[in-house]
Amino acid sequence: MKPLRVATIIHGYFPRVGGAETQLRSLVPHLKARGIEMTILTRHYDPALPVYEEIDGVAVYRLPASGPKVVASLRFTLTAVWRLLRIRPQLVHAHEFISPATVGLLAERFLRIPLVVTSHRSGEIGDVQKMQGKLTGPMRLNALKKRVSAFVVISDEIADELQEIGVDAERLIRVTNGVDTERFTPSPVDEKVARRKEAGFSSDAQIAIFTGRLVPEKRLDLLISVWAELRKTSPNAELMIVGAGAEEARLKAMADEGVHFMGSTTDVLPFLQMADIFVLPSVAEGLSVALLEAMSCGLFPLLTNVGGAEEVVTHQLNGWIIPPDDRDALLSGLQTIFEDEQILLKRGHAARERVVRNFSIETAAKKLSDLYFNLTLRNIE
C-alpha cells in the first residue's frame, strides 16, 4: 500500500523547542511506521538554518516569514500554499488557528483535500479567544467552522471552547498529547547522584525543575519570588530552569541563591532525571508535553489548574494542583512536598504509572493515523 501523503503546517519546528514542536517530532517515527509520509512546512525563524533539510527522515521546508507582522504572515501564507501545490498532499494538518490554519483553508479549497486543525491552548491566549480579538478573526473562525474536516482536541477545555463557537461535536477528535515512556524513564539512583554531582549539586539537594519557554504566561517570576522563602524551611531546595525565551534577562535579575538557569537544550531528559519534582505555574496551557515528560520520569508535579491539568493529575495522588497566580498556594505546596520525601517517591511512581497507562506516544500516533486514513478514504468516496 502506498504511503498516505500528509503535509503538516506549524509555526516552529526542531531545533526550536516547545510543546507543539516536541510533540510533532515525537510523533513522526510512529506515524511513518503506520504508513504516513510526512512533509513539514514551518517558518524560517533562524537565518542560520537551511531552507530545506530532512530531519528524522522527514522533509522540512522553512518558509520566509520576515518583516512586519502582517507582511510576514502574508509571505508565509503565500509561500506555503505555493509549496503545497507542488507537493500535492492528500491531507493537510494545521497547528493553531492563525497563519497555519489560513494556509490549510486555502489548500482545502484549491486541492480539495481534507483539512485537520489542532488548537494547542485555551483561555485568554488560546486560539479561539485570540482569533475573536482580531479584526478578521470572526470571519476566519467562521470559515474554519464550515470547512475543517476534523479538529484535533488535546483537552476538554479546548473541546468546550470549540463547541461554544458552534463546532459540531462529531468533528472534535480527542487525541491527547503523548510521550515516549520507554525513553522518558526514571534513572537508577547511582546515575541520578552522578548527574547531580556533575552539575554541581550536593548529594542531599532537593531539586525542582521547570522545562519550557521563558515567557510571561509561565509565571516563572512568581516561582522565583517564593524560592528564597522556601529555602528558610527547606535549605537544600534547588530550582533548575531549563529553557530560553523573552523573559530570561528579567528572571535572571530576580533570581537569588538556589535558582539555576541551565539554558536551552534539545534534550531535557538528563535534566529531568536529576530532579525530584516538576513545577509548572502557568496561567494558560493546553495539555503540557513538558508535564507528561516529567511525570514519565517519575517526577512529582506541582502545577496550576489550567488547561488539561485535571485530566492528567489527581491532586495529592499523583501530583499537586493549585490555583493560578496564587503565591501562597505555590509556596505552601512546595513546602509540603519538600518536607515529606515519601510523597516524592511514592507519588512520583504514581505519576509515571498514570502517563504510561494513558499518555503514550504510540496511542496518540495510532489515533492520529486512523483519523488521517479515515478522512482520506471518505474524501475519495
Q: State the strand order across the main sheet.
A: 3-4-2-1-5-6-7-8
Q: Radius of gyration from the CA trace?
A: 21 Å
List low-confidence stretches.
none
Number of β-strand runs: 14
Residues in helices, as a percent range: 40-55%
Mean pLDDT over the full residue set: 93
The major beta sheet can be summarized as: 8 strands, mixed
What is the number of helices? Answer: 15
Report on this structure.
The chain has 381 residues and is α/β, with parallel strands linked by helices. The chain is built from 15 helices and 14 strands. The strands form two sheets. It has an eight-stranded mixed beta sheet, sandwiched between helices. Strands 11-10-9-12-13-14 form a six-stranded parallel beta sheet, with helices on both faces. β1 (4-9), α1 and β2 (36-43) form a beta-alpha-beta unit. α2 runs parallel beside α3 (99-111), α3 (99-111) packs across α5 and α11 (289-296) packs across α14 (341-358). It starts with a strand and ends with a helix. The mean pLDDT is 93.
